[in-house]
């Protein structure tokens, strides 16, 4: 979400891809809000046994086969795979072929069918569990609609679809299933998942949307979209907000890594920050936030830890 917001500020307002990026930001934001609402509803469930809940679950079976699931609930009795669809308008879950059609503002838009996404993810996860010798745990699947005003014209028949208010009752019902693995086995399974579940790696948006880096606005840009004016070595001022731009260098570098490329050279950094002090740039990059790759002349830098970087 953050990267999309920053990309919009770094593109010219009449860029040919701006509308698609704004639409994608709306989808990502709606998806995130929906997931938060579902996470809250899961917290209302009364559990009579140990459980683990993984938002943004990822399971890698092979280098080419990865299952990504919005949320996964694990207990000693079952595994529940949850796909969350926060969508407006009227929905048709078509099955021959599997496709999700959304009718909104007089338009019909086709999406990948969440039923098929769950069936594929479940197949991958089931094979992984078998490799790990945990095949005795039954896998349940559900699609959750966090938006109560969504109209379901054609309901799915392969995977149950529930609204967010039904979550607690749905989970409490499957909580009555008999225990099939011991507490120690559940702990061992969670350990294997934690080792296998790699954090999601973001691709720079220029690569995702096929935008040449030259089309990205350079320099320090305030959250209001105005270019900052340098007032001291490390401080930039926004003439519109009449305020200092917080963490100007750090934020601009994060823009580079999330929008332009996974690596940066000192020359690229000087150019992107529009700041010609090689000493300052060297000092900024030779820091724990970055990992240096290569020899002095062609040295490149990449982010050390994406999650802790922008705080
Ligand atoms: Zn501003």
Automatic annotation (TrEMBL):
Pfam families: NERD. Residues 30-152 form the NERD domain. It comes from the Bacteria. This is NERD domain-containing protein. PROSITE patterns: NERD. InterPro entries: NERD.
């Amino acid at each position: 979400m953050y990267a999309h917001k920053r990309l919009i500020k770094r593109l010219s307002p009449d860029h040919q891809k701006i509308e698609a990026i704004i639409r994608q930001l709306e989808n990502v934001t709606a998806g995130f809000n929906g997931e938060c609402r579902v996470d809250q509803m899961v917290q209302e469930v009364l559990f009579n046994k140990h459980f683990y809940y993984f938002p943004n679950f990822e399971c890698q079976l092979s280098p080419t086969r990865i299952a990504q699931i919005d949320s996964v609930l694990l207990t000693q009795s079952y595994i529940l795979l949850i796909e969350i669809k926060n969508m407006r308008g009227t929905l048709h879950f078509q099955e021959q072929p599997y496709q999700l059609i959304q009718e909104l503002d007089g338009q019909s838009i086709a999406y990948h069918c969440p039923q098929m996404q769950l069936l594929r993810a479940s197949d991958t996860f089931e094979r992984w569990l078998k490799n790990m010798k945990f095949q005795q745990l039954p896998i349940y699947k559900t699609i959750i609609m966090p938006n109560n005003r969504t109209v379901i014209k054609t309901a799915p028949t392969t995977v149950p679809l529930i609204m967010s208010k039904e979550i607690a009752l749905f989970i409490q019902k499957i909580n009555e299933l008999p225990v099939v693995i011991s507490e120690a086995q559940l702990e061992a399974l969670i350990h294997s998942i934690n080792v296998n579940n790699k954090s999601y790696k973001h691709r720079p948006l220029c690569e995702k949307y096929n935008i040449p880096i030259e089309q990205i606005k350079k320099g320090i840009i305030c959250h209001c979209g105005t270019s900052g004016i340098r007032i001291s070595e490390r401080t930039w001022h926004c003439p519109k907000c009449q305020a200092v731009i917080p963490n100007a260098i750090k934020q601009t570098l994060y823009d580079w890594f999330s929008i332009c490329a996974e690596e940066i050279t000192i020359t690229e950094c000087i150019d992107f920050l529009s700041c010609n002090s090689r000493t300052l740039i060297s000092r900024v990059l030779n820091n724990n936030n970055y990992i240096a790759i290569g020899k002095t002349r062609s040295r490149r830098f990449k982010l050390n830890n994406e999650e802790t970087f922008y705080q």
